[in-house]
Amino acid sequence: MRLVLMLLLWASAALAQPEAPLVARLSQDRVEVSTTFDGASILVFGSTAQPIGPGGAEILIVTTGPQQPFTVRRRVRVLGMWFNGPSARFAAVPAFYSVAGTLPAWRLLPEALRSQYHLGLDVLPMASTGARAPQFRAALLSLKQEAGLWQEDSAPVEIGANRLFHSRLPLPATIPAGEYTVRVLLVESRRVVAEQVQRFVVERVGTAATIADVSRGQPLLYGVICVALAALAGWLGSIVFRRS
Amino acid sequence: MQVYLPIAEMSVDALLLVGIGFGVGWLSGLFGVGGGFLLTPALLLLGIPAPVAVASGANQVLGASTSGVIAQSRRGNVDWVMGLVLVAGGLFGSMIGIQLFAFLRSAGLVDAVVSIFYVVVLGSVGSLMVMESVRAILRRRADAPARLHQHFWMHGLPFKIRFRKSRLFISVVPPLLVGAGIGLLSAIMGVGGGFMLVPAMIYLLGIPTAVVIGTSLFQVVCVTSAVTIMSAWQLGSVDIVLTLLLLLGGVAGAQFGAQMGGRLRGEETRALLGLLVLAVAAMLFWGLIDTPDHMFSLGPG
Fold first, then answer.
1. Mutate which: A238, A240, A242, A244, vs B, most B CBs within 10 A
2. I need a labelling partner for B136 at 20 to 30 A (CA). Which of A47, B118, B245, B288 fits?
3. Of A68, A69, A48, A72, which is closest to residue A58 (Cα–Cα)?
4. ipTM, two decimals
C-alpha cells in the first residue's frame, strides 16, 4: 500500500516536470543497525520521460557499499591438521555490492561500459596482492555472495505503467556501517542516456554501538572498565547466589 | 532471546550463553578449578572468533575468581610475597603471549594455534591427572605412605628469598618461571591456569596446600586482569557483553557445583576431571584434523 502511494505521488510529481529523462529516489536515506537488527530492505523507485520495458529503454541499478580490505586464505594440510595457508589480500573491494536491472546488464551494454560503471561481478575491480591463483578471486566472489553481501540480478527491476520502475534492495543482518551509493542508469541502444545518484548511510545505534565505539576509540580505558565490571559482577554474583 | 555481541559482531542466544556459563561454573565448583579451559573451547565450538573467545574467557575467569580471592585473603591464606613473584612472572609471560597472539592473528593462524595449544596442554594435563589419580586410588588400597617434600637441583639456584607464609626459603627463579609459563598460557588460551598452577606450586615449589589455593587465585586474578587489559588495548578482542552473560550463569553454577563437590572423594574427583579434560582435548583435535567444508576463508584486513 505504502509502495503504491509512493509510486503514485512520484508519478504525479514526475509528470509535472516532463523535462527530466530519469528521476530516482530511495524509500529511506538512513538504516539503523540496532542490537536486534536482522536485515532490512530499501526501495529504489523512480520514473522516466520515455517508455521503459520491452521495446523501450531499460533501467540498471548498481549499489556500492564502503570499500574495505579483505584477505582470502586457502586452507592447507600440514601434519594431518588444517591451517590457513597462502593468502591473497584485496586492498579495497566493496563491503556490499548489488546490481539489478530490467534485464541483466550484460544484455544491455558493451563490456567497456559495464566496466566503466562496475555493472556486474565479473567487471568489479578486485586488485589483490599475495597469492596470484584465480581461485582466490573466485573464493571471494562465492563467499561474499553466500553471505548475501554481493548480489547480482537477485531480483529484476519491476516496471509499472511504462514509465515507473521500482526495485527492492535486500540488506542482510551483517551489513557493514558506512556510506552507500545507489546509481540508477537509463539505457537505450547499448548506451547510457541518463543517470541519477542517490546515497544512504548505514549506522550502528544503541548500547552495542556505544560499546564497540568505546572499545575502538578508548581501548585502554575500555580494558580497565572490563576488568572492573567483571570483578564487580563476580563479587556481587557470589553474594546473591551464595548457598549455605 | 537473541543478543548482539558488539565485539564478536554476531548474534547469539543470551540464554544459551548463560547456560554455558552455568554448566562450566557448576563443573568448576564441583572440581574446584577455574573452568577457563572448558569455557574457551565451548565458545570456539559456538562459532565465536578465537581472539574474542580467548580474551572474553580470560575476563570471565577474572570475574569468577574475584570472590574467591577476597574470601581466601580474609582467612589469611594468601602468601602475598609468593603471589607478587608469581604475578611478576605472569605479567611478563602474558605480554609475550599477547604479542605472539597479535602476530598469529595477522598470519591468519590464531584458530589453529589456539586449538593446538589446547590439545597439547589439556591432553598432557588430562593424562597426568588420570594416571596420578588412578595410582593414588591403587595406593590407598595398598596403604602405602606417600613421600614428603624433597630437595633437588632447584634448591641450588641463586636469588633466594624467604616466603614466610609458605615457610620456604627458595630462589625466586622457579616461581618467576612458573608464573611466566602460566601467563603465556593465559594470554593464548584465555584460561586462569589454576589447573596447572596449583600442581606446580605444590609439587615443584613445595608450597603448603593451605596457602596454595588463595595464592594461586591471587595470581590468576592479577594475570587475567592484565590479559584483559592488554587484549582490549592491543587486539580489541574483549566482548564485555559476552563476559557478563557468562559470569551471570557461571557464578550461580559454581555455588551449586561447590555444594555437590563436598560429597565427592578427592581421587575420584581428579580422575573424572582428567577424563573431562581429555574429552575436550579430543574434541578440539578432531576440529583440527577434520576436513573443512570450505577450502577458503574470508577475513578482514
1. A238
2. B118
3. A48
4. 0.87
Task: Please state the domain count of chain B.
Answer: 1
Contact (CB<8Å) A231/B62: yes
The grid coordinates of residue A235 equal 563479587
Does the residue B29 lie in any domain? yes
Domain assignment present for residue B150? The answer is: no
pTM comes to: 0.82
Mutate one of B117, B229, B290 to test the A interface: name it (highest A CB count within 10 A).
B229
Interface-testing mutation among B24, B67, B94, with chain A (most A C-beta atoms within 10 A):
B67
Domain hosting B188: range is 2-145+156-289
Residue of B40, B101, B118 whose CA lies nearest to B230? B101
The model's pLDDT over A7-52, given as tens digits with 9 standing for 90+, comes to 666 666 655 555 688 888 889 999 888 877 778 889 999 888 888 8
Cα(B125)–Cα(A135) distance, integer angstroms: 42
Q: Which residues pair with A74 in a beta bridge?
A: B296
Q: Is residue B296 part of a domain?
A: no
Cα–Cα distance for residue pair B25/B45, rounded to 1 Å: 17
Choose which CATH entry (3.40.50.880, 2.40.50.140, 2.60.40.1930, 3.90.1150.10) describes domain A2-205: 2.60.40.1930
Q: Position A92: which residue type?
A: A
Distance from CA of A180 to the nearest CA of B (A): 19
The answer to whether residue B300 sits within a structural domain is no
CB contact under 8 A, A233 and B251: yes
Q: Where do the domains of chain A lie?
A: 2-205, 207-244
Q: Contact A90/A203 with Cβ under 8 angstroms?
A: no
pLDDT tens for each residue of B155-175: 677 778 888 788 888 888 888
User: Of B247, B296, B301, which is closest to A234 when you measure between CB atoms?
Assistant: B247
Contact A234 B2 (CB under 8 A): no
Collect all residues with Cβ–Cβ distance below 8 Å to A69 and sequence separation of at least 6: A89, A90, A91, A92, A93, B300, B301
